[in-house]
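WARN retry 2 of 3 for item q-0093 after timeout on previous attempt; input resubmitted unchanged.
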Amino acid sequence: MSELRTKAEHTAAIRTDRRVAVVINTRSRRGRRHYFEVLDQLHGLGFEPLAELPVVNPKRLRDMLDKALDTRPDLLIVGGGDGTLSSAVRHVAHRDVALGVLPLGTTNNFARSLGLPLDLAGAIRVFDTGKVADIDLGMADDRPFANLASFGVSVEVAGKVRPWLKRILGRPAYPLTALTVLPNHRPFRAFITADGQRHELLTHQLNIANGRFHGGWQVARDISIDNGMLVAYQLGSGKKLRLLGETLVRATTGRWRSLAGGPFVVGREMLLETDPPMAADVDGEVRLLTPITLRVVPNGVRVMVPGDFEDR
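OK item q-0093 returned
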């Protein structure tokens, strides 16, 4: 781990020295269409990037992030969806470089959790007028994540949602795909141990969130990506009709519930066991199987955020 400047020093360096590098996933929903527009707007604000790297092949994303970091920027600007940004988070964690987020995906959960403008010009202005903050880093076993680990229907949905449907519909593509998966999906029993208490539930869908948004909609108003806590919650229950109703409501209204009034489990560390064992979708990548230990590393990642972001 490199020695970190204070956040005020880091912010001043970005504003004064303008040392930035840019990596944009041009396979993301809006990446290819806006690549040159991003560069033009950055130049217009006085940034002359040390590296300008389009990612045409997603398999080369990590190499491109390494190449950008080799230029030793104060700010690594990354454009793409939540999967791209999750990879970037893993690259900058515990390093003296801030992540600048360009929300170019379908749901943009990470950008929403940071309170960033979702329009391109607004997001880019944050690099010029915002501040450096540090936020929580989630860990699923030894795998870092920014937003969410999920289990159940969503794992199948992630593998079945069509890219063309995401391009046409955006966020509703996920719950609509879920409606095709649900009829043949079996519920599972989950056991969550947090802060010495063991919770048991039967469900089709379980999420454990570090960030505030899932599917582009707010999970609950009092969740934060910077409070040192994870939040576990189910959608619906073990009954398909209840999950169907929850999915339809979320698809049409994006409603949220307060932590005080919903079926939430909150803790700094959680042991998740399931019967049967379940695959985990960790920020869009399916790699782990339960049982899994999930925890928070407070202030594990530096990011560029608007000036009114509450940095705890």
